[in-house]
Amino acid sequence: MLLLERPVPRVALLTLNRPAARNALSLALLEALQSAVEALGRDDDVSAIVLAAAGPVFSSGHDLKELTAHRADTDAGLAFFTETMTRCAATMQAIIACPKPVIAAVQGTATAAGCQLVATCDLAVAAENAHFATPGVNIGLFCSTPMVALSRNVSRKTAMEMLLLGEMITAEQAAAHGLVNRVVPQGQALEHALAMAEKIAAKSPLTVSIGKRAFYEQAQMPLAEAYAYTADVMVRNMLARDAEEGIGAFLGKRKPEWKGC
């Protein structure tokens, strides 16, 4: 269901492994993904995480067959629907809260909650054949939770167009709109995502963690509050051993030795 590998030093690779179900985000898969991200966030041997998927589809979103099966429950599915959507929200927030950058490697399509997952990751690399959509409106289930991540990545007009029309956009369009960082040749998304992860892993893990948290915190603040907050972050960062080492190495024209403190 979810594979964990360590393909290169200090980089963890998580692979959604339900290709026969188009990597639909079942409740069990969401639970596994949240648990894995939280565990890797605590792992001192990991500095970056790559999220990929087996098969031709990155993720089709929520498992509609699973959701539909619970309509037969005595409450018409209310409890299960609530549990699933709550878990999905918690999983996405776990990715944001994870002190390690999470990079999506997208091969194929990412729709609905699958598109939400890509938008939630800190970085995303898409193969040129990848496509993205929030098509819930087409089946009577508006992509309300995917809207949260989508609207924090692309402009309001672009988000509303994707949400209201439910049409696929290409990888190139996704990059132009800011949904993904890079578009690479077909079959090379994972390779490029791992290369990005390796570059991040070569930096101070403390500094990266400080920066990731500060980015999401300040993004929700008014301008003056954001500057006051980030000034304090930089002061505390400056007092860290890795900052002293990094600046000293730069001035001394040598390679820094990070300790993560």
Automatic annotation (TrEMBL):
InterPro entries: ClpP/crotonase-like_dom_sf (IPR029045), Enoyl-CoA_hydra/iso (IPR001753), Enoyl-CoA_hydra_C (IPR014748), Mitochondrial_ECH-domain (IPR052377). Coiled coil: none annotated. It comes from Hyphomicrobium sulfonivorans. GO terms for molecular function: hydro-lyase activity. GO terms for biological process: fatty acid metabolic process. May play a role in fatty acid biosynthesis and insulin sensitivity. It comes from the Bacteria. Keywords: Fatty acid metabolism, Lipid metabolism, Lyase, Transit peptide. The keyword Transit peptide applies. It holds the Pfam family ECH_1. This is Enoyl-CoA hydratase domain-containing protein 3, mitochondrial. Belongs to the enoyl-CoA hydratase/isomerase family.
